[in-house]
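Hello,

Our lab assistant flagged a job as stuck in the queue for most of the afternoon. It eventually completed. Since we weren't sure the result was trustworthy after the delay, we are filing this so someone can double-check. Below is the sequence as submitted and the structure that was eventually returned. Let us know if re-running is recommended.
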Amino acid sequence: MIPIRAYFRLFTGYLRPHRRRSVLLALVLVSTIALQLLNPQLIRLFIDGAITGDDVSALVPLALAFMGVAVVHQLLSVCPAVFRPQYFSSRGLNHGTGPGCGARPGKGGLALV
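-- returned structure --
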């Protein structure tokens, strides 16, 4: 049986040349999770305020915050997909030969999946 440290060394050795990109991806991942947790709380505050009869001036900022969080979440969700093709093309790699690639149904070549 291989010790877990050997796997960790292998993993960190693989990520070492991609350190900056890996940290950025981890930050994007944590941020999107945080935003997914924040949006339902904003909805809860908005609904509770509307039920209790709060003034509209108190509800508008919550609605705007909800929309802002949703937009930022969508932008962050697109980030990994946007950077991936640039990563492969900047290194002269064929888009159909990297990890995460598979055959396109009905087509002869390969593409990012």
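-- support follow-up --
The delay was a queue issue, not a problem with the job. The result is valid. The first strand starts at residue 101 and ends at 103. The longest helix spans residues 56-90.
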